Amino acid sequence: MLLKPFKILTKIGQEKNTPLGSIGSVLWGFDMLLDVLEKTRKKYNIKKRDENDKNQKLSHLATCIDHAHGLFSKYYKLTDETEAYVVAMVLDPRQKYRYFFDNWERKHHAGIKRKTETMYKEFHIDDDAATSSSTVDSGQSKKRKADDDDDDDDFDLIAHRFGKGEVVKDELERYLKSPPLSVSTKEANLSFDLIAWWKANETVYPTLARMAYELYSIPSMSAEVERVFSRYYLEIVY
Fold first, then answer.
1. CB of 9 closer than 8 Å to CB of 34
2. Confidence of residue 235 (pLDDT cuts 50, 70, 90)
3. What's the predicted TM-score (pTM) here?
4. Residue 234, exposed/middle/buried by CB under 10 A (0-12, 13-18, 19+)?
């Protein structure tokens, strides 16, 4: 049972052309595997290595768990050097900040928000550059605006139908303020297509969609890249 989660997450990490095989799965994957190691340690009452006790003798399983935990912790810390891993998870509409708030200590929450806002500012494009409507649509929009300006303020069709709620212009703020997407079943969650969701919502969140496309194109593992290099090496040599 100890190795089963490692097998499952390794296969997920090697998926091609899916968000599950992207860096969006790295942090929660690390969390799950570290949790598996800690539960195994408790289950079998395995002591941690004591660096001050040179005569301490550990079982083979204890040595393996210590070594695995050390490697995971080492690479986990390296993910903190970039915003990409955190933001890739925030851009999952089913999670947003919720995963971090539920599973990470409060002292890390400010850093998560800071990383998300930093990357958003780097990608942010102004409204003129993000506008994808045609000149015909633009002309019609201007005409409607001019007509609206001529109307009596008391005769506001939009306010009458939808209310005069506060309009949140900032794209990231709008995304984070909307409730996380609810997917009811395990099967639906496993088959959920993140890229398709962002394509469907690209006009609402143009900057965030661009971030999602770039981040979810980054593989979580280098296995496929290494296979490609190995394949070309064999073709050249033989």
1. no
2. low
3. 0.75
4. exposed
